[in-house]
Specification:
By secondary structure, the chain is an alpha/beta fold. It has helices at residues 14-30, 51-62, 72-75, 83-93, 104-113, 128-142, 158-169, 186-199, 209-213, 233-239, 247-250, 273-276, 283-302; strands spanning 40-45, 66-70, 96-100, 118-122, 149-153, 173-177, 202-206, 218-221, 258-261. Helix 2 packs across helix 13 (283-302), helix 6 crosses helix 7 (158-169) and helix 7 (158-169) runs parallel beside helix 8.
């Protein structure tokens, strides 16, 4: 993985994904290690973030490297300065770029022109770093990934896309329940299905939330209106009525099921306060694991860490 881009979770093989998770667990257990001394990571953001910015910054420093944050106003990707120029300039200064962009095309263009690895820290297309943290959290709480059933309730967005691909790759059963017009795209479902056939997993798309949640080991949801979709908020609340993860829905899952959410959460919309604050919720373990999962990826992309 050394020197590789990470634009989609499907850029990794099953073996590589397993290695990232193993490395993340080892680094989580060992604490700070001086693996990336002399290396600098640039955070190139078009969107603000709490978890993404802090976890990458702290993670890089815990590995002995440095991190620099570049705000939207300082760059103006594609407006103040062409993406290809930004990529080539940054390549002269830093060892890796983690980009949080609106369009998937932007992060792909950065990777095309940069001479250093580019990590997709979120785009409208995918959120591979979140999927890494999600799998690490499930592995910690369930002791395995293969055979675990995950019910994703809600919008077929970037988080769902990466999670679907990752679950298919690792032999999980991924079930998604979404209202009409908000389903996962056919390309992702098809690719995840191919991965699942090779791993013994399964991909199931249904309309009813209760059908997805029945007997599930993991119940997962995300906000109904993501950043940049504020104008659609009212329409989306109407479309997703009946897709809230509440105590009634959780009661349909397996007795030891865990609840996951990538945060930020809107209590009373996609999830009830009772569930997110309840005993089955692991959302803050999940948030913490952004730090450890990204350290695993950084160690393998920029260093020689083998886990």
């Amino acid at each position: 993985m050394r020197g590789r881009d990470l634009l989609s979770i499907a850029d990794l093989s099953q073996e590589e994904l397993s290695r990232v998770l193993e490395t993340a667990r080892a680094l989580k257990d060992s604490g700070p290690r001086d693996l990336l001394a002399g290396k600098t990571l640039a955070l190139l953001f078009e969107k603000p973030s709490l978890r993404t910015r802090v976890s990458f910054d702290v993670g890089m420093r815990q590995l002995g490297g440095d991190c620099i944050y570049v705000s939207p106003a300082e760059v103006g990707l594609g407006t103040r300065e062409p993406v290809e120029d930004v990529a080539r300039v940054m390549s002269r200064y830093v060892d890796c770029i983690a980009a949080r962009t609106f369009a998937q095309e932007t992060v792909e263009q950065l990777a095309r022109w940069a001479d250093v690895p580019v990590i997709n820290a979120l785009s409208e297309g995918e959120h591979p770093c979140q999927a890494l943290a999600d799998l690490l959290t499930i592995l910690e709480h369930k002791g395995r990934l293969e055979g675990v059933s995950l019910a994703y309730i809600g919008d077929g967005n970037n988080v769902a896309r990466s999670l679907c691909l990752a679950a298919g790759m690792m032999g999980m059963e991924f079930r998604i329940a979404a209202p009409e017009g908000y389903e996962l795209d056919e390309k992702t479902v098809s690719r995840a299905g191919e991965l699942a056939r090779g791993s013994g997993g399964g991909i199931v798309c249904v309309r009813e939330a209760k059908e997805a949640a029945a007997g599930a080991d993991v119940v997962y949801t995300d906000v109904w209106a993501s950043m940049g979709q504020e104008e659609e908020a009212t329409q989306r609340r109407e479309a997703f009525a009946g897709y809230q993860v509440n105590a009634k829905l959780m009661s349909l899952a397996a007795p030891e099921a865990i609840f996951m959410h990538d945060l930020p959460a809107h209590r009373g919309e996609e999830v009830s306060a009772e569930v997110i604050e309840g005993a089955q919720s692991v959302v803050f373990d999940q948030a913490e694991n952004r730090l450890h999962a990204q350290k695993g990826a950084l160690a393998l992309i920029l260093g020689e860490e083998s886990g």
